[in-house]
Inverse folding.
């Protein structure tokens, strides 16, 4: 069987669907090929406990999806709706709790229970992060220049970078340098004194990373999670109705409304080339689809070391991809419970507590110890957890009176991606649930169903090599113009007509849709230039 399209997109995750929607809207015949039997990638809602329960298997909150993208693709018309998530709530082993309400006066009072100095320092910390975010945030949405290139077009783009650099004074330059290279521990030590504050805030510096809070570069990860907007509130997060699959279902509906063809259960076996250009793809079924443009949203090691023959690529590009760091020690635990947790320190129902981010992390040192145990080859004895209960707002997820609990936890050894100790992972999940039970007595007994997804399943089933949710670590050496290879942060590749737009590219890392949107700019721009170069024009 043989078919032809203008564009074939490999991967039906959110970036692939964003690209498909924009390209189809521009009039190109566009086909999305997704290996799994369901579209959505890591932002998918599934039913592991039966049809009455909707579970967000991996990615569990949305923030970084740009508002103009939502408008462009008319996502609300296709059912996209986000419930703003409540603030942080950290129940502690000593019987106390720390909350960070949005209201400044309330927040100061909550923090002052642990440290009056910290209550004052938080506003300075928040302002510091907002200032740097205002400079680096817009750069996240743009296609980065190829720094060091002498090509005229690249020199122009390097010059445009000065628009952002003009905003930076000498103090700002130092602050940004320290944030990009320093640890979240160093950053927090400069503002706070209490274990409660440093433990809670350090979590955002290590979420999804193979790094502890004392690891260099973890401060930037905090900023990455600080940039986002739900209902105009910078750094806010929310629960999509229907789980994260609500996001990708709306994107798929938008793409389909513009004429894109979406195929689940259509695994791509190889990317075909001819005379140095992309020529299409061959599916695992044997079907061949010809296309002048192929966009891959798969992990770079899959795209360039498996789907392509590396011999077709420059040696230095292959070396960059082979060296790409994609480690993780993440375990996602999803539960169905027959009642909401009752916290010993805050026993009353409160949508700002139960509908917020519940964090199990008593101190920064606890997190560092947990990471070092995983580095030494043992699952953490005291894992931290970032917990959400989206069914507090969304009654479509579980039967009346029951709830879905999402527990994002770390760390197990990064080697588990290739050789997972299933008994150790099950025991690890037991410890996470027991830790929750220690601050919310009766929680363990409320569990009706549980799903435990370790690095091995993330890698094998969801295509997250190493179990890394970002398709690559968010370290300085793997960001901006280095993401994922020198000279190719512009979403192009060494093969003409082959583009990349996964989370391993600039703007990726989170449900942003930015790579998917930006790759469309490159595809359409290159098509215009090719037409202008044709003889007779």
């Amino acid at each position: 069987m043989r078919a032809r399209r203008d564009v074939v997109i490999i991967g039906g995750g959110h970036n692939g669907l964003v690209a498909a929607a924009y390209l189809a809207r521009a009039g190109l015949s566009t086909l999305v090929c997704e290996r799994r039997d369901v579209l959505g990638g890591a932002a998918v809602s599934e039913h592991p406990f039966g049809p009455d329960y909707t579970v967000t298997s991996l990615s569990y909150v949305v923030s970084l999806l740009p508002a103009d993208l939502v408008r462009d693709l008319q996502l609300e018309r296709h059912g996209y709706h986000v419930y703003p998530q409540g603030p942080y709530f950290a129940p502690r082993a000593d019987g106390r709790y720390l909350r960070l309400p949005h209201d400044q006066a309330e927040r100061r009072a909550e923090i002052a229970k642990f440290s009056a100095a910290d209550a004052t320092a938080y506003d300075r910390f928040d302002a510091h992060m907002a200032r740097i975010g205002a400079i680096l945030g817009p750069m996240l949405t743009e296609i980065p220049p190829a720094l060091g290139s002498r090509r005229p077009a690249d020199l122009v783009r390097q010059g445009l970078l000065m628009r952002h650099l003009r905003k930076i004074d000498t103090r700002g330059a130092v602050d940004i340098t320290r944030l990009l290279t320093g640890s979240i521990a160093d950053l927090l030590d400069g503002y706070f004194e209490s274990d409660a504050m440093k433990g809670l805030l350090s979590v955002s510096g290590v979420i999804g990373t193979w790094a502890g809070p004392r690891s260099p570069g973890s401060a930037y990860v905090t900023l990455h999670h600080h940039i986002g907007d739900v209902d105009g509130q910078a750094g806010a997060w929310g629960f999509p109705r229907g789980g994260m699959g609500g996001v990708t279902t709306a994107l798929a509906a938008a793409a389909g409304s513009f004429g894109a063809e979406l195929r689940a259960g259509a695994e791509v076996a190889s990317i075909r080339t001819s005379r140095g250009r992309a020529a299409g793809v061959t599916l695992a079924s044997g079907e061949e689809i010809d296309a002048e443009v192929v966009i891959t949203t798969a992990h770079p090691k899959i795209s360039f070391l498996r789907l392509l023959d590396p011999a077709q690529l420059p040696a230095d590009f292959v070396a960059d991809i082979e060296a790409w760091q994609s480690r993780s020690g993440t375990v996602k635990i999803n539960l169905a419970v027959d009642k909401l947790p009752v916290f010993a320190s805050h026993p009353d129902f409160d949508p700002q507590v139960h509908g917020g981010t519940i964090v199990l992390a008593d101190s920064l040192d606890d997190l560092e110890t947990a990471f070092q145990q995983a580095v030494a080859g043992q699952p953490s004895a005291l894992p931290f957890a970032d917990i959400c209960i989206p069914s507090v707002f969304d009654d479509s997820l579980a039967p009346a009176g029951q709830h879905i609990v999402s527990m994002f936890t770390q760390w197990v050894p990064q080697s588990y991606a290739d050789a997972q100790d299933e008994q150790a992972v099950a025991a690890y999940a037991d410890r996470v649930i027991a830790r929750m039970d220690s601050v919310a007595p009766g929680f363990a007994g409320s569990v009706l169903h549980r799903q435990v997804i370790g690095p091995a399943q993330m890698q094998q089933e969801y295509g997250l090599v190493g179990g890394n949710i970002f398709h690559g670590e968010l370290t300085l050496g793997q960001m901006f113009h280095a993401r994922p290879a020198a000279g190719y942060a512009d979403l192009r590749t060494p093969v003409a007509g082959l583009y990349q737009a996964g989370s391993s590219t600039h703007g990726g890392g989170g449900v942003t849709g930015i790579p998917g949107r930006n790759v469309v700019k490159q595809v359409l721009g290159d098509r215009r230039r090719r037409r202008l170069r044709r003889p007779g024009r």
User: Anything to note?
Assistant: The chain has 19 helices and 22 strands. The first helix runs from residue 14 to 25. Residues 86-236+326-462 form one domain. The radius of gyration is 23 Å.
